[in-house]
Specification:
This protein is an alpha/beta fold. It has helices at about 25-35, 80-90, 125-130, 135-155, 185-190, 205-210, 215-230, 265-270, 280-310, 350-365, 380-390, 415-420, 440-445, 460-470, 490-495, 515-524; strands at about 35-40, 40-50, 55-60, 65-75, 100-105, 110-115, 120, 160, 170, 175-180, 185, 255-260, 260, 335-345, 370-375, 400-405, 405-410, 430-435, 450-455, 480-485, 500. It has an 8-stranded mixed beta sheet. The chain has a 6-stranded antiparallel beta sheet with strand order 1-2-3-4-6-5. The protein has a 3-stranded antiparallel beta sheet with strand order 7-9-10. It is globular.
Length: about 525
């Protein structure tokens, strides 16, 4: 069984606390480690970093054929006990954007942490490609960072991260992950200790100068990281004389803008020198960022209406052939990419909804687009659909894909197999994700998200539990919430900034109705 080769050149090479790159002497050691088998089951593919405390390898599990990150820590270093704490921290964390700890191995010289391989490149490398961050993307990234930090600060975990910087954030399909928990510490333990370290430009004064650290210390780093991203936005790209360095706190106010909304007040609150002047909790910062993002979206909508009026003399009409801002340039066509369909509870109807969406897209745009649907729910419904539609045939069991009305149906696809299909050239990939925690991260990777649940009154508690679990994630414009017909009171959730659309009934998902096709067209 083979696996897709990771993109090494874009992979984050500073996985061990972003420390200094290896010397020429160490590079010779890297070559010797490649293809080495460690502990009889991990084949080293590449050394990602090495310093005085140990090494970080990208390895392949020789039996499971999956990638792993191996952190090999030297027991001889004076502060080995501090480094070992990372294992105790990671084993308690269960979050799709934080690497899972799979195993801890040990010999006389080393302790090895076997961690989940997280795809992507560092935020620093992502920005270094010179494309510039859009205003929308900066706010989207900032909210994602708040989501992860809020999870760490929660009453369940009560952890302080204390080393937030671009090198420790991975970007994959605009989905962020946080790595390297070598400096993380329980909040209770931090109350009894004083520190004197920190990355210049991101570490709060109390962290650098031996003061008392708290959740507000991480909030300071979030503010500095947002400043760093803003300095590398499309408007300001190239202004900084040190492209790899942090952004000065005094960066010009006139350059810190998101559309028509100034956010310097938010950043000033985050980065106040006195911790008491900062946000008391990440949730407060996140709320203000979401409000800024909403105002920014409204500003872009107003600007677009004005632009359209200049072309046509009346709202909403563009001249023939004009790109309306959607990839592909066809008026009304949804943005191309992956659309994830996720259920808030079992039997929510993700498969029928995904099939209806895929067939609707193909019927509406015909030969102009290629559409595929991936069954990733693990239910094997596509095999039953194939038997019902084409009739039982021994050959169908061996086929991975079948086609109905121009749409390719990929049966029971694993997450690793899906990676290869993402590069196959489809205009639209509809992902039937089913329900459950395992597929939430795959949903976050999609360009468009469709979350579905039942509308019957006794399912209202499932909607409430879902939004509490997501803790505000999913309030941006690329999330769509859908309920099957029922009596649920959607106004309850509209107060949180969420609008739940009601799906019209259809006699058959394969046949569809004109009403259902028009509904899908309006939704996307």
């Amino acid at each position: 069984m083979g696996i897709a080769k990771p993109d090494f050149d874009r992979y984050n090479k500073d996985r061990l606390s972003g420390r200094q790159a290896c010397s020429n002497r160490h590079r010779q050691g890297k070559e010797r480690m490649e293809n080495t088998i460690l502990y009889e089951k991990y084949k080293v593919l590449r050394t990602l970093s090495r310093n005085s405390t140990g090494e970080v390898f990208l390895a392949e599990h020789t039996i499971l054929h999956t990638y792993r990150i191996l952190k090999r820590l030297k027991k001889a270093v004076p502060y080995y006990g501090e480094l070992k704490k990372e294992a105790g921290i990671l084993k308690c964390l269960k979050h799709p954007c934080i690497p899972a700890l799979y195993d801890v191995l040990e010999d006389e010289e080393y302790l090895i942490l076997v961690e989940q391989y997280m795809e992507g490149e560092s935020l620093k490398a992502f920005c270094a490609r010179g494309e510039g961050l859009s205003e929308k993307l900066i706010l989207e990234f900032a909210v994602q960072i708040c989501d992860i930090m809020q999870y760490l600060h929660s009453s369940e975990n009560q952890l302080l991260y204390l080393d937030l910087k671009p090198e420790n954030i991975l970007v994959s399909e605009h989905c962020l992950s946080l790595v390297d928990f070598g400096t993380a510490v329980p909040a209770e333990e931090a109350k009894e200790r004083r520190y004197g370290f920190g990355t210049p430009g991101y570490a709060a004064p109390e962290l650098r100068e031996g003061g008392r650290v708290s959740e507000r210390t991480d909030i300071y780093a979030i503010g500095m990281l947002i400043r760093w991203m803003l300095e590398r936005s499309g408007e300001n790209c190239g202004r900084n004389t040190n492209p790899n360095g942090p952004v000065p706190v005094h960066w010009g106010r006139r350059h810190i803008r998101t559309g028509q909304v100034r956010i310097e007040k938010i950043l000033d609150t985050c980065t106040a020198q006195d911790p008491s002047g900062r946000y008391a909790a990440v949730s407060e910062l996140r709320r203000d960022l979401l409000e800024a993002a909403a105002k920014c979206r409204r500003a872009r909508t107003d600007n677009r209406i004005t632009r359209d009026s200049d072309f046509s003399g009346r709202r909403g009409k563009m001249p023939e052939g004009t790109d309306d801002g959607i990839k592909g340039g066809r008026k009304g066509q949804p943005k191309k990419g992956r659309i994830g369909v996720y259920g808030i509870h079992r039997m929510a109807g993700t498969t029928c909804t995904a099939i209806g969406l895929a067939l609707s897209l193909k019927k509406r745009w015909g030969r102009k687009v290629s559409v595929a649907i991936l069954e990733m729910s693990g239910k094997e419904d596509f095999e039953k659909l194939e038997d019902w539609y084409f009739g039982t045939d021994e050959d169908t069991d061996t086929k991975e894909v079948f086609t109905i009305r121009g749409v390719d149906f990929w049966k029971n696809i694993t997450e690793e197999r899906a990676l290869s299909l993402y590069n196959r050239g489809y205009d639209y990939l509809i992902l039937d994700l089913g329900s459950g925690e395992r597929m939430k991260k795959e949903l976050l990777r999609c360009q468009e998200k469709l979350v579905i649940g039942s509308g019957v009154p006794w399912r209202e508690q499932d909607w409430t539990a879902y939004f509490e679990t997501m803790d505000g994630v999913g309030l941006t414009e690329d999330w769509n919430y859908v309920r099957t017909p029922g009596g649920i009171r959607s106004g309850k959730f509209e107060q949180k900034g969420v609008r739940i659309h009601e799906m019209p009934p259809a006699a058959s998902v394969l046949e569809g109705t004109k009403e259902l096709e028009e509904w899908f067209a309006r939704l996307f």
